[in-house]
Specification:
Low-confidence stretches of chain B: none
Distance between the termini of chain B: 104 Å
Oligomer: heterodimer
Mean pLDDT of chain B: 81
Number of helices of chain A: 5
Structural class of chain A: alpha/beta
Helix content of chain A: 25-40%
Number of helices of chain B: 5
CATH topology of the domain at 43-147 in chain A: Nucleotidyltransferase, domain 5
Number of strands of chain A: 7
Strand content of chain B: 15-25%
Order of helices and strands of chain A: HEEEHEEHHEHE
Radius of gyration of chain B: 30 Å
Radius of gyration of chain A: 25 Å
Mean pLDDT of chain A: 84
Shape of chain A: elongated
Largest sheet of chain A: 6 strands, mixed
Largest sheet of chain B: 5 strands, mixed
CATH class of the domain at 43-147 in chain A: Alpha Beta
Helix content of chain B: 40-55%
Strand order of the largest sheet of chain B: 4-3-2-5-6
Low-confidence stretches of chain A: none
Strand content of chain A: 15-25%
Structural class of chain B: alpha/beta
């Protein structure tokens, strides 16, 4: 075996063939990490600001309840006053009992006691409907709530 | 010479032009980067009282142990029928809970202090939450101070038992009264 130094004048170009592979790896990472919004928002929600916010760690324990004015395209049908959205449809306050029941059914015994109802409520909503929702939650035994807000 | 030239030609033919491949992958990558909004859910946590236990659950509480926070239809804040700017609420509730100077009108002990929240149907949710935020913030500040006094750490670095010992002495009791007359 001889080790002969190649002349530096004849330098080969850097191969970019592996570049797509790296990009693909990044791509797959982000594809896995990205969680597509599973619910289409039908009500306008911009949550209020607060300083004492905490993060919700376990996503599987959180059930969302949206309250706000229906989006413009649904206003013909649902009117302009604040409504409650459960899952993928605008619902009545009375439907919350069934909603909580369905959410509980999909959880284990242990998770049921730790489950949190996240209230994503628009700033401009008045307390009337919020308090109705809270009463419904209390009736159906879901006592842990989270008032969604931004710092 | 001829042989060599042929060889290089063959190599060129067999090479697949992959440079546009990277561009396509980049495009898709950027799409996913934009859609991957990794904003974790955050908010103010609260525990609602059980349904069959309204205000009746707190019988026989001395008047001095209750801080009555009133929100009217416009979201204005009243304590003892006095209109108070929201920026002062945190200090007021802290003073009420700890009562450092043993004032007659404020709470006897921190673990007996209760905050009553009154609001109307028309009260804006935004004002409700910012008010709630201040009261909870008062408790958080107290816990932080106590944690430093007792354990010499920040509250968030304490373990569950240490936190519980603080909660026992400074429990966060907030009750809501909807639509009082």
């Amino acid at each position: 075996m001889k080790f002969i130094k190649k002349k530096s004048g004849n330098r080969p170009e850097i191969s970019t063939a592996s570049l797509p592979d790296i990009i693909f790896m990044l791509l797959f990472f982000f594809m896995v990490v990205t969680v597509m919004r599973e619910q289409e928002l039908m009500v306008n929600v911009s949550v209020p600001q607060a300083t004492e916010v905490e993060k919700l760690e376990n996503k599987s324990l959180v059930d969302h309840i949206y309250i706000g004015e229906p989006m413009p395209k649904y206003q013909n049908y649902y009117g302009r006053s604040a409504r409650v959205q459960l899952n993928n449809q605008i619902s009545e306050v009375d439907d919350i009992a069934a909603f909580v029941y369905a959410c509980n059914n999909s959880k284990t015994e242990l998770d049921r006691s730790r489950a949190i109802a996240s209230l994503r409520v628009d700033k401009k909503v008045t307390m009337g409907i919020v308090s109705d929702v809270k009463t419904a939650l209390r009736k159906s035994g879901r006592l842990k709530v989270n008032y969604s807000s931004v710092r | 010479m001829r042989n060599k030239q042929r060889g290089s030609r063959r190599q060129q033919k067999s090479q697949f032009n992959t440079s546009s491949f990277a561009d396509i992958a980049f495009l898709v990558l950027i799409f996913f980067l934009v859609t991957a909004s990794k904003t974790p859910e955050q908010g103010i946590k609260a525990k609602l009282p059980p349904y069959n236990c309204d205000i009746g659950c707190h019988f026989g509480i001395k008047e001095r142990n209750i801080l009555r926070v009133n929100l009217d239809e416009k979201g204005q804040l009243f304590i003892n029928k006095k209109n108070i700017p929201i920026t002062r609420l945190r200090k007021i509730s802290k003073e009420f809970i700890i009562n450092p100077n043993r004032v007659e009108a404020l709470s006897e002990k921190p673990d007996r202090a209760i905050v009553y929240f009154y609001y109307k149907k028309e009260t804006p949710y935004n004002e409700y939450l910012t008010t709630m935020n201040e009261v909870i913030g008062a408790y958080h500040e107290i816990w932080e101070e106590v944690a430093f006094e007792r354990f010499g750490y920040h509250y968030k670095h304490l373990n569950q038992n240490e936190k519980r010992s603080i909660w026992n002495n400074f429990p966060k009791i907030i009750t809501e009264v909807e639509f009082p007359n």
